[in-house]
Amino acid sequence: MLNKNFDVAIIGSGPGGYVAAIKASQLGLSTALIESSAIGGICLNWGCIPSKALLRNAEVLNLFRRSEEFGISYTDLKYDFGKGISRSRRVVNRLTRGINSLLEKNGIAIIDGYAQFKDAHTLEIENTSNIVKAENVIIATGARQKAIAHMEVDGSIIITSREALELPTVPSSLLILGGGATGVEFAYLYASYGADVTLVELKDNLLPNEDEEISKQLAYALTKLGIKVHTNTTVVAVENVSSKVKVTLGTPTGNTQLICEKVLVAAGIEGNTDNIGLENIGIVTNNSFVDVNENMQTNIHTIYAIGDVTGKMPLAHVASAQAILAVEHIAGIPTNPINYKNMPKATYCNPQVASFGYTEKEAQSLGIEVRIGKFPFRANGKALAIGETDGMIKIIFNARNDSIIGAHMIGSDVTEMLAEISMTNKLNGTFRDLGYMTHSHPTLSEMLKEAGLDAYGESIHT
Question: pTM of the prediction?
Fold first, then answer.
């Protein structure tokens, strides 16, 4: 039986929870990490990491199909999706072993089981006699796929990304509901392996939170891959037909039907706030998400919440940033509120999409006078050399002070270029700082320089 007092107890070990645990230990706080499943949470075990491993497989496969461009030929190309799944699990296993090692090295007490609040400082581990007491508690329980009307997930025909990452074979036909990052990544993956993919989004554009110009380029690229893209579209009815599913879609031009082997639900999430005893202590929630202030505190100030369960911005790196902020606040270290608008966003289909800050429409709606600089991949030497000429860089500046207020990119490896312009923004850099910094040649990052200069009519190569 465990009955111990800690400075900090953390419920959930995803990229918010385990980062909070390590940071707390580094700051000298006695720390307990409570996890009912696998260390690393959904992101590491069934989300970010395994999906990116599979997307790499798809990139390699598509490169093989383009080999004639590079003077390379082959006969009888074969590929095994199941081996790709196995590779993704090996990647996950290596990372989870590493995180477990870090937790052990930092002296963190790992407690297996479901935690429930008995009072603000007491957690009971379900089906055990273990009691955890803590001066501060951090809720990091994450979120799950939100249910969609007419679409009851059965884990077999109607699935979520969790089941998709275990499929040993590629379905012959697949309907994906939700054109956000998860939806477009799986659409790219399965289409690359030969599935007949239909991608449905309720709003006007895929990746609806991205700049409209970028979203439209992505839709065009996915359509070239053979993916059928439907925006402004709803699910009207669902019917099982001989171990398949018939779905009626409401499109801007009327209803249409399709029969597919599987449906992947990737639209919306809800917080994992049930069955952890929040009602026992009066924690305020809003539509399943925990309300927090800028310090990540709930209405009970010794209880914090971080990550997807807050509903702020469901991204792993946001959860980690919130974790650091919450723990430093507990430790009495001065903190600064998180600027969610400038948080980087990345989508790993091909072409990749990366961004931060205001879109063109958002800036204009706020009455900000803007200058916009653009640069196409097809005008970049490195892009031409590696055969990746689809895409563009778009940077938005405040015309009154030349500051960067948004960056939006689509193309090869743009997720790796996001850090440079994000740092320029963080250091209050202007178009001149970005545009007059010398970049090595040839690199894709030269496009950032050129796009910055383009906003003021100074681009050299366009």
Answer: 0.95
